[in-house]
Amino acid sequence: MIDIGKFHDLEILRHTSVGLFLGDAEGEDVLLPNKYCPEEYEIGDKLHVFVYRDFAERKVATNIIPKIQLHEFALLKAVVVNEIGAFLDWGLEKHLLVPFSEQRMSMEEGRWYVVYLDLDAGSDRLYGSNKIDKILSNQELRVEENDEVDLLVYHESELGFSVIVNHCHDGLLYKNEVFQVLDIGDKLKGFVKKIRPENKLDISIFPTGYKKLIDKNAEEIYRILKEGHGFLELSDKSSPNEIYVQLSMSKKAFKKAIGTLYKEKRIVIEETQIRLPE
Question: Against a cut of 0.90, is the pTM above it?
Fold first, then answer.
């Protein structure tokens, strides 16, 4: 079956005046309009296409890559708001509708929102939902501790960043364990650090034991600063070779370590050096 909202590898069946008809192994076909057809092809070739409904509500294929797929979350911009609902730019010609009933708060044109792409079973139409809490569930977890997971940041609080885990669970990334700038809508990899009572997920950007290594490197750099002249002619702009010669650690490890020290206000980072505070 050629489901809408998903990518499919479909075989070219025939050419017509309006485009190519593509089919699956079950005998269903879908039109790839002329504007999306490759310049060179042969009947029987397979094309990787995304399927959705066009302005006339016909099932069609496209080679344009949308910003979101069925049963996934993404940060999208509202481009039109009218009496029907909000229409978001998801990368395709026909904007994605978020009905008023699926808006956590009234959406405004020009603003960005984390939304979920869902399918109305009755009409077989795609729609977006901004009601994240309704969609996420930790009742039956599909992850275990130490699993690597996909994350999307959807809220920031004093405690940390609320993240969508594998497009289905809710997790928390503690702010004191984040050593990079994060914004709402950012996508990144992470790890399930701990499963707390009621299946609450503590998430880390680093695998188990990695933070201990960062802390160890940070303490080593701090020791060198204290025992030396209070500064090191190294910064996050230094070459990997310079850092390795002086500290025997990679540039990535160095940047994580000085990020920790800077966040703890134990060092000052300057253009060409790091130093102890005055």
Answer: no
